[in-house]
Design goal:
about 80 residues; two-stranded antiparallel ribbon; 2 strands; about 60% helix
Length: about 80
């Protein structure tokens, strides 16, 4: 599986430039599995892991949670059919 590339404001240049993050989705999902009901701690962990701002981390975490929920909804529907 390839990395997710995301452009974020560079904290080292006070937001005057952008940098590309190489985020491994497997790492994100493993982090989510370790703290499925702890959104704030998940956001903190993502910020620490990739040295990004609160808004960027929150967007990533919410996308992972939404994707996980959709996967679990789809698997539940398949079992019911």
């Amino acid at each position: 599986m390839s990395n997710i590339l995301r452009k974020v404001k560079c904290p080292h240049c006070d937001g005057s430039g952008l940098r590309t993050l190489h985020i491994n989705p497997i790492t994100l999902f493993e982090m989510h599995e370790q703290m499925p009901d702890q959104k704030i701690n998940f956001i903190k962990a993502v910020r620490t892991e990739w040295d990004i701002g609160l808004r960027e981390a929150k967007e990533i975490v919410e996308a992972v949670i939404e994707f996980s929920n959709q996967l679990s909804d789809n698997s539940t529907q398949e079992w019911e059919n």
